[in-house]
Amino acid sequence: MGSVGGEHSFRVIIVGAGLGGCATALAMHHAGFEVVVFEKVREFLRLGDSLGLGENALKLLDRWSPYLRARLVEIGNKSELMQIRRWHDGKVLAQQPLMDMAGFIGHRGDYHRAFLDAVAEKGIPVHMGSEVVEYDDSSPSVTLKNGERHFANIIIAVDGIKSRARELVLGFDDKPKSSGYACFRAFFKGSHLRGNPLAAEFVEQECVNIWIGKDKHLVQNTLRNGEEFNWIITHKDTEDIKESWFQPGNMDEVRRLVEDCDPRIAAVVKKTEACLDWKICYRDPIPTWVSRNHTVALVGDCCHPHLPTSAQGASQATESAAVLAQCLLLAGRENVPLATRVYEKLRFPRVRRAQTNGEDLRDRWHSALDKVGEGEEIDPDSILIKNNVLYDYDAEADTRKRWPELSALVSEELKTGKITPLC
Ligand SMILES: Cc1cc2nc3c(=O)[nH]c(=O)nc-3n(C[C@H](O)[C@H](O)[C@H](O)COP(=O)(O)OP(=O)(O)OC[C@H]3O[C@@H](n4cnc5c(N)ncnc54)[C@H](O)[C@@H]3O)c2cc1C
Ligand SMILES: *[C@@H]1O[C@H](CO)[C@@H](O)[C@H](O)[C@H]1NC(C)=O
Ligand SMILES: *[C@@H]1O[C@H](CO)[C@@H](O)[C@H](O)[C@H]1NC(C)=O
Fold first, then answer.
1. pTM of the model
2. Which side of the chain, N or C, has fewer Cβ within a 10 Å radius?
3. pLDDT value at position 45?
């Protein structure tokens, strides 16, 4: 290491081995590039809880690793239908295929393990305990905490919501802002609920239920065939933000929130011992995903975080990986700037759609009951999840189709040195 690599190899450094980093590694390897991954933590734990993967991502992963797709589907293809219920009594207001929402819901840690195994199976090196502390975009390279410097043709940062690379790319520190809401979420063994007459129906078989109320909603689902149980309450919260995946939540506040909720689910929630407080740190869209000299590109949560109601965080990161790999292939090894600038232009509107889909759904759920009286029927269509419109998309094919138009535009911008900001 330490050089740009052999004459014919095109070397890609990926920073971060989360789901997005793994997807990027697979996409780049599939494109025939030499890939190396640096990951800060020494060891991955089974972190997080439920995560959705949509068909828009699975079709790409299938091309890069059919074995991976099969494993992901096995983890996540459990319940067919989901119920959307009224907050105070659980009356079913609408029912629809789960595929319309989250796609396949599984445990983030189980999915991550499958991704990491697929990366290992391809022989892609992942260096654990290797924190990147510095980026250089003029002679593309990263410096690790231990002082080692590594060079490549392109650096791809997939370093998550608290990204250091984002600062470099933007030239300023992008502060998180509250989305106006926060989530409490808990995850525990569900088997003991089987004996609980109130809650038994929610663990008898794999299921997903959503209770919608004024300015709040609760998502309940099982994982691993009912062995594990997950609830997530989204509620109004404008408090100052601590951006963390690990902040403990205040169970007294949670109990107050579910005071007027369907007793069947309220009973389970109230008994929960501990939960996490996820201030939903959302960020305004950023004007660029690529560094000034066009050699460091951002992928995943670091440039396009999603609300939980989008259920597309990992899937959009996978699409971004696919598009960037295709752009690098189309541009050729001497033309990284062209590739990265087409990449961001192509991705930005698509990602905005997935992001705003989540905002729209949350807003529809939180106001649905305002419009109807007690005895009146709610129009089921007004609360349905509409993510399925995102699944029918092939990120690789779209990149090839739009390349001529976008590469001409970007070539012009690179010539004049005036890159139009994304927003
Ligand atoms: C702990 C955790 C729990 C989560 N739980 C859920 C969940 O329950 N449900 C859900 O839908 N989504 C969850 N998410 C978000 C979800 O994983 C992401 O939306 C999706 O996987 C895409 O993320 P990413 O790969 O871009 O970033 P991340 O998943 O955040 O991965 C970024 C990776 O980069 C590494 N990294 C950061 N800085 C450096 C550096 N300087 N040098 C080297 N490596 C670095 C991090 O250690 C991490 O492994 C969670 C994320 C985290 C981190
Ligand atoms: C998921 O499971 C359903 C029902 O068991 C099945 O019909 C469907 O084909 C499965 N989907 C995939 C992608 O395997
Ligand atoms: C930008 O990168 C190119 C290689 O792609 C290099 O030749 C050039 O010196 C760099 N410019 C600056 C200002 O860093």
1. 0.96
2. C
3. 96
